[in-house]
Amino acid sequence: MSRPTTIKDIARILKISVSTVSRALRDAYDVNEETRNRVLAAAAEINYKPNYNATALAKRSTHNIGVILPFITNYYFSTVITGIQEVAYSKGFNIILHVTNDSPERELSIVDNLSLSSFDGLLVSTCSQSDSCEHFARVIREDIPVVFFDRVPNQIRTSKVMQDDFNGAFEAVEHLVSNGYRRVAHIAGPRGLLFTEKRYEGYLAALTKHNLPVVEDYTIYSGFSQESGQADTIQLMDLPEPPDAIFAVNDRKAIGAMLTLKARGIRIGKEVGVIGFTDDPMASIISPSLSTIAEPAFEIGRKSCELLLGHIRKKSFIPEEKILPGKLIVRESTNKG
């Protein structure tokens, strides 16, 4: 049986030091691109497989990343996970998923019961009703790097990756106004989440720019589900002067709004415009098709994982906040015709 290849074999082939090979394979900052590419090419040629068990013992590294998120069944989070996987697997890291089902009790239990020695770092999207993030602050104090994505807390200083919620909301509402809608309502997410606040601020800014009134009854805070969208829209359409357009915090709530409007015989687009936020595949399938702001979910996953690996490689890595732009997708639900 042939012996497994080692970094010494790569060093001998390239006539460079073992330490340089090791740093190149770790993607260390002090190895130039040409050397790194030569090392990777040689590693592939001789089918070098890193011994992560030995690495873990030598460096107290597990090559495991924990991912804590509210759901895995919806399109947005499944796409984020795909982006995380692409980066993690390319760098020799495994990911271990923990799902909170959007429950603060479950989130706290997961964090309290984590074996932190089993992870090099955590990627986290908090649950919508989590009032305190002290449990994550505790993890950071244990010198475990944490990067938040999508649903991020204000009060913790670490790297965060988000979509541009303010400008996405502004663009969505401005699109409604440009199509002739004047009484624009907003079915928002739960209070206390940063992106709920940013999307509400974008909504207000667009109304203000176009000198449209801000009607208190036109904003409803609730959950993220289709059922919440249905219930919110019933409340809106029962007002003495109901809105002629609805901006929903996500596509599921927007689809719930559309179902309520259909049940009442209200023509979507022609009588009441609806726009969402996500670009879930259902948005293009439902009839009429749903206008929306497409979120860069895959890139959010990629960038979050890249930042976390930066923290893992270099403990003094300065926290960064990345905000990625969305894109307006115009479909039938905002066409007055």
From TrEMBL:
Keyword Transmembrane (UniProt): no
Highest taxon of the lineage: Bacteria
Entry keyword DNA-binding: yes
A Pfam cross-reference name: LacI
Keywords on record: DNA-binding, Transcription, Transcription regulation
Residue ranges of every copy of the HTH lacI-type domain listed in the record: 5-59
Xref: InterPro entries: HTH_LacI, LacI/GalR-like_sensor, Lambda_DNA-bd_dom_sf, Peripla_BP_I
CDD domains referenced in this protein's UniProt entry, alphabetically: HTH_LacI (cd01392), PBP1_LacI_sugar_binding-like (cd06267)
Protein's UniProt name: LacI family transcriptional regulator
